[in-house]
Amino acid sequence: MKRWMVFWLAVMLLLTGGAVLADEGDFPALNDAGFLDSGEFVFEDEENGVWRYASPELWIEIIRKTQKKPVQTWYEAEIRCAEGSQGPHMIANNPESWTNYAAYPYKLARKTGTVLAVSGDYAYQRILQKTRAGIVIRAGELLSERTWPKNSSHFPNLDCLALFPDGEWKVYDSDEMTAQEYLQAGAVDVLAFGPWLIRDGELNKKALKKYGKSQAQRVAVGMVEKGHYWFMMLEGRITRSRGAGISFLAKLLQEKGCSVAMNLDGGQTASIVFMGHQLCKMDNKKRNLSSRRTPDILGVGVSELLPQVDDPW
């Protein structure tokens, strides 16, 4: 059954003298910068695989895509952030401890009011196991700096995605920079998984041939330019989607014009959540099976329209 919602914050509508609601989920009139002047717009159509959001600082459109040979289902989320607003960043279930208090991603998003999120690098598990977790920084706090050398045979190879406060993203080989160099450069968050997929608009062809070739769920993210990003999630190991190697999403992100892109943790960690609802399917039988619990997510946007943490799925 088609499910869709359009919300406007009532107070804002009164202040602006009211507004015309979008027709069948189309974005309402946006200002010259591409955002709303006030209020929030939310549209959800699970049946047709379309989700949209707009506010004065954020614009999101998510499209569920499919193909038949081989059978695949994936999600393409385009994100535009207003100049001066906060872009995608790591969000903790408990900011006092980035390596504890794991929660299901959809519940973590509800708790923090996060509009859109994907799973991250799952670094906390490697940190707890006291293995090489890579260079991991959260909100300017160094959590780990033990990494693998470049071209390691290990997967993940612990390449890094660095997020900066001005919205800039950069990707690096696992040992290309030290933890202190990231901090001195001003990186707020550094994720360690890899490999990096795109740098300066070019695919990491050597890494795509070497790593992550099995059929599995995947998450990858990319930046076109500051303020313009893509989140992608590929379902896998279920009837409607076989899953694929990391090159599947890498090529899609390049087609979207991403200048940098990074492969994040896949398998049962892989997830995409919008307005407190997990969009991706994890199992053939259990419709409401969540991805595995994690203490943080890579997310963007804040809204009070999300369900409460313990509300129904």
* Widest beta sheet: strand line-up: 1-2-3-4-15-14-16-12-13
Low-pLDDT parts are 1-21
Binned strand content: 25-35%
- Largest sheet features: 9 strands, antiparallel
Helix content: 10-25%
SSE pattern: HEEEEEHEHEEEEHEEEHEEHEEEE
Residue-averaged pLDDT, rounded? 93
Provide the gyration radius in Å: 19 Å
Query: How would you describe the shape?
Result: globular
Q: How many discrete structural domains?
A: 2
Number of strands: 19
Number of alpha- plus pi-helical segments: 6
Q: State the distance separating the first and last CA atoms.
A: 16 Å
User: Class by helix and strand content?
Assistant: alpha+beta
Give me some keywords for this one:
313 residues; alpha+beta; 2 domains; 9-stranded antiparallel beta sheet; 5-stranded antiparallel beta sheet; 6 helices; 19 strands; disordered N terminus
What does this structure look like?
The two termini are 16 Å apart. The chain has 2 domains: 1-51, no CATH class; 57-302, no CATH class. The strands form 4 sheets. The chain has a 9-stranded antiparallel β-sheet. Strands 5-19-6-17-18 form a 5-stranded antiparallel β-sheet, with helices on one face. The protein has a 3-stranded antiparallel β-sheet with strand order 10-9-11, with no helix packed on it. It has 313 residues and is an alpha+beta fold. The radius of gyration is 19 Å and the shape is globular. 46% of the residues are buried. The protein has helices at residues 10-15, 105-112, 123-128, 179-185, 205-210, 247-255, and strands at 41-45, 50-54, 58-68, 71-81, 89-92, 114-118, 136-138, 141-144, 159-163, 169-172, 189-193, 196-199, 202-203, 218-225, 228-234, 260-264, 272-274, 277-278, 296-302. The model is unreliable at 1-21 (pLDDT under 50).
